[in-house]
Amino acid sequence: MMRPLIYATRRLPDEAVTMLLASGELSSWDSAEQPVPREQLLASIGSVEGLLSLITDRIDSEVLAAAPRLRVIANMAVGYDNIDVAACTARGVLVTNTPNVLTETTADLAWALILAAARRIVEGQKLIESGGWGPWHPMQLVGVDVFGATLGVVGAGRIGTAVLRRGVGFGMRLSYHNRRPNLELEAKTGAAYRDLDTLLAESDIIVVTVPLNAETRSMFGAREFALMKPRAVFVNVARGAVVREDALVEALRSGQIWAAGLDVFEREPIGPDHPFLSLPNVVTVPHIGSASIATRTRMATLAAENLVAALHGQPVPNPINPEAWV
Ligand code: DGY
After folding, report:
1. 151: number of CA atoms within 13 Å, CB side?
2. Which atom of ligand 1 is nearest to the CA of 97?
3. What is the distance of C-alpha 205 from the center of its chain?
4. Which of 62, 81, 58, 83 is nearest to 72 (CA)?
5. HSE-up of 10 (CA within 13 Å, CB side)?
6. Shortest-distance Cα residue to atom 3 of ligand 1
């Protein structure tokens, strides 16, 4: 059998490496933690046919030019805003992603952020760590209720649906916004469709799950935060660039909204000097929405499955631009 050349931009879980080794000649950047430097990437893909990439790799026309034999890029993520898909299609390069397998894990993390931000969990931990916990008092670290509140989800895909489903157990009023109403979501969750401004004005808890694209970039700015309730909790598990961070910092600092729980940031990684870290009402985690052992392993093996299937002319599980190969 033909053994295509494959390059992986990171050291992957063993299960995925085994699959790739079984069907191609694999080389990879030998670090699990650090992204491959740009120059190294460009120098490593001159003859590869399959590229397994991560969200930290910018895949653009420069990369495509450096890989004239490239036929498929398998991104180990559901999001693919790191890839210039139009350029790939124009070059006849198929792009794949890893949907479905991370839906529930990411919805769990959204809920961890909802509860942590609404109930001031991190502030409580810090108070104890600092030795500042004195006698119990009636209004100490009071937060806002999640049970019975109104949950508004922006983005009606799989993750948005899974976030809403969990809201049923919390006795919440559920609503969602999307470019178009999603009847399947409504049937599964009972959530009601709202235009964006109405959702922002009505919701106690707002969760963002939209993909990043030209339409959603910067969709939450000063105007949107001004529409929210003063006790609103804002949670973002999508992409940082859908939010104007300066506007969010201002809304949190001034008390225009109550709190935020953030998994994603405009420029990752952020450091301790980021303005969010100076605000007690912000809970930050380092882009770990899909980070359970089982899910990250499955994302890696699904990316490998996509790559192997494409390279061997078999049906590809998750093509983004099937037209690239027509
Ligand atoms: C994705 O899959 O797009 C996440 O951001 C990483 O899990």
Report:
1. 33
2. 2
3. 18
4. 83
5. 18
6. 79
**Structure pTM?**
0.97
Dist. CA 263–CA 270, nearest whole Å:
11
Ligand 1 binding pocket, CB closer than 6 Å: 55, 77-79, 102, 289-290
* Cα 221 → chain centroid: 19
- Residue 107 to residue 104: CA distance in whole angstroms: 5
Burial of 143-179, coded b for 16+ CB within 10 Å and e otherwise, reads bbebeebbbbbbbbbbbbbbbbbbbeebebbbbbbbe
User: Which ligand 1 atom lies nearest to the CA of residue 264?
Assistant: 5
Can 268 be counted among the known catalytic residues?
yes
Considering only CA atoms, which of 152, 114, 154 is closest in space to residue 242? 154
Domains of the chain are 5-99+293-325 (3.40.50.720), 103-284 (3.40.50.720)
Q: Residue 302 carries which side chain, given as an amino acid letter?
A: L
User: Which residue of the set 244, 287, 296, 298 is catalytic?
Assistant: 287
Active site residue 177: no
Residue-wise pLDDT tens for the chain (326 aa)?
Answer: 579 999 999 999 999 999 999 999 999 999 999 999 999 999 999 999 999 999 999 999 999 999 999 999 999 999 999 999 999 999 999 999 999 999 999 999 999 999 999 999 999 999 999 999 999 999 999 999 999 999 999 999 999 999 999 999 999 999 999 999 999 999 999 999 999 999 999 999 999 999 999 999 999 999 999 999 999 999 999 999 999 999 999 999 999 999 999 999 999 999 999 999 999 999 999 999 999 999 999 999 999 999 999 999 999 999 999 999 98
Q: Is 186 a catalytic residue?
A: no
In the three-class reduction of DSSP (H, G, I as helix; E, B as strand; rest coil), residue 86 is classed as helix
